[in-house]
Specification:
alpha/beta; seven-stranded mixed sheet; 12 helices; 27 strands; about 25% strand
């Protein structure tokens, strides 16, 4: 097998280790606990934890908890659960709030060095004063306060003397800088909100740009890996570290995951939840990790997907079919098989004894024919899929048709002798004969071109199916027309609920992963299931024309 080429981050790390720039690798995964993790985060998790593991390093889990109005312990707990589910374990569980005292001390240091000042302008005035790419900003009228006055005002902000929005702390850099991030960025704002960890100790909170790099530095993060939208932040990240003279962590950017028919915006996903357009964060149509887990996607499949899409510096739209292919690849190897009929038509085996029931030992997974078995009952009265019968069949239709033969999977060959219809002309029953000499164990093998699945009526178990499809109808959700809202592209058929009939062994499956409904697709038992109403979610179809490069 051809050896995989190093991605650009691996090249950087190997060069850093070879040159002695770093002795060991330290990465971090820094989510904000303001929502549930999604597939885009899975890529970042696999990348940060995977790189550290490959090069013998460690990864910290550090929550970016600097906005108390949007953060909650619910999200903190869900993030830990998702990381563990993906198969990773962090070295230390840390929080930006762990460093609030140190960050504030650094803010006072910048103030006393004349590199930060308290600004009384409103948010609108500050935004207008920044200028544009083509026009330099204008100095705040409060920019030249003395360090002593700024320190007094900052301490009064910290003590709760001022209202929200009344004052902010800004770095004093360059209002004409070509990188607008350097035009006196905000360091602290006033916010009266109870923090999920620090309670009401603080009423001023640091901004992202004054938090992230310094937290990396404190933890001696060697390779701070972010998505591409943070590349404009990197010079400011470096400026704070260099100005404060602290450990030189460095930031590297990679392309975020964009997936067809999918949204990765936390804000929009939250709106879908709040407006009841989905059942919750773990709705199986959602791209959240708890959502795809409930749908039956496996951690192994997600790791395979992240490995296949690779790491690049250029944004690209990945085909969701690749993710579905990875799911099928994993489940095909491991999932148990069962027969389930979703759109039934009755079959009566007229020459089979009325009171007889045969039990066939059938493999749970054909990949292991000598492995575990499940017992499948066979009787006179059966159900087959309506699509497996055609009255006026074309030449190459190899399933059941009048006077045609087909094998019932694992059992006998049957022949359709009579078609019964209702008053409207709908087929309601097929009367067939079976050939007892074609018993798969004691009989003689006879080949027929068609094999179909079935269930025995007396033992069949009624189940509820939730057949899920893509949540959106637009392939590239980043290109919603200006005169449209993203919700205009919600797929009305993204969930179809129906009843089906299953062989009894299905309800005793305790494998813990999605199962294959033979000839149909992969399904997983949902948490809403009850003994009287088993519910199964569709994970993915059985086949697809997609083949990965």
């Amino acid at each position: 097998m051809e050896e995989r080429k190093l991605n650009f981050l691996e090249e950087i790390i190997e060069a850093d280790l070879a040159s002695g720039k770093v002795d060991s690798i330290m990465t971090r995964f820094p989510p904000e606990p303001n929502g549930y993790l999604h597939l885009g985060h899975a890529k970042s998790i696999c990348l940060n934890f995977g790189l550290a593991a490959k090069y013998g390093g460690k990864t910290n889990l550090r929550y970016d908890d600097t906005n108390p109005t949007k953060e909650d312990t619910e999200y903190v707990d869900s993030i830990k659960e998702d990381i563990k589910w993906l198969g990773f374990q962090w070295d230390k569980e840390l929080y930006a709030s762990d460093y609030f005292d140190q960050l504030y001390a650094w803010a006072e240091e910048l103030v006393m060095r004349g590199l930060a000042y308290v600004d009384d302008q409103s948010q609108e005035e500050i935004s207008a004063g920044r200028g544009t790419i083509d026009r330099p900003g204008t100095d705040s009228p409060w920019r030249n306060r003395t360090p002593e006055e700024n320190l007094r005002l900052l301490r009064e902000m910290k003590a709760g003397k001022y209202k929200e929005g009344e004052k902010v702390l800004r770095a004093k850099i360059d209002m004409a800088h070509p990188n607008m991030m350097f035009r006196d960025p905000l360091l602290y704002r006033i916010k009266y909100a109870t923090h999920h960890r620090t309670g009401d100790k603080w009423c001023i909170y640091p901004m992202y740009d004054f938090t992230h790099g310094q937290c990396d530095s404190i933890e001696h993060i060697t390779h701070s890996i972010c998505t591409l939208e943070f590349d404009v932040h990197r010079p400011l990240y470096d400026w704070f570290i260099e100005t404060l003279g602290i450990f030189p962590s460095h930031q590297y950017e990679f392309a975020r995951l964009n997936l067809t028919y999918t949204l990765m915006s936390k804000r929009k996903l939250l709106e879908l939840v709040q407006k009841g357009l989905v059942s919750g964060w773990d709705d199986p149509r959602m791209p959240t990790l708890c959502g795809v887990r409930r749908r039956g996607y496996t951690a192994k499949a997600l790791r395979m997907f992240c490995d296949k899409i690779g790491v690049s510096k250029r944004d690209q739209l990945m085909d969701i079919q690749l993710l579905e292919w990875c799911v099928r690849q994993d489940l095909n190897e491991r999932s148990n098989r069962y027969m389930v009929v979703q759109d039934p038509v009755k079959v009566t085996i007229t020459n089979y004894p009325e009171d007889k029931v045969e039990w066939f030992d059938c493999p749970l997974n054909p990949a292991d024919p000598e492995g575990a078995k499940r017992r499948v009952p066979f009787s006179r009265n059966l159900l087959i899929e309506r699509a497996d019968f055609m009255e006026d069949a074309p030449k190459k239709f190899f399933r059941l048709k009048p006077d045609g033969e087909v094998r019932l999977k694992y059992t006998y060959i049957i022949k359709c002798e009579e078609v019964i219809k209702d008053a409207e002309g709908n087929v309601v029953e097929l009367r067939c004969s079976y050939d007892p000499s074609t018993h798969p164990v004691t009989g003689e093998w006879r080949s027929v071109k068609g094999t179909i699945h079935w269930v025995s009526v007396p033992e069949a178990k009624e189940i509820t199916l939730r057949n899920y499809d893509r949540l959106f109808t637009l392939a590239d959700m980043s290109k919603v027309p200006e005169d449209k809202d993203y919700k205009d592209f919600l797929n009305p058929d993204s969930l179809v609920v129906t009843k089906a009939y299953a062989e009894p062994a299905l309800l005793g499956d305790n494998s813990g992963i999605a199962v294959q409904f033979e000839r149909t697709g992969y399904y997983v038992k949902d948490k809403d299931s009850t003994p009287s109403d088993p519910v199964f979610n569709k994970t993915t179809s059985l086949k697809d024309s997609y083949k990965p490069e």
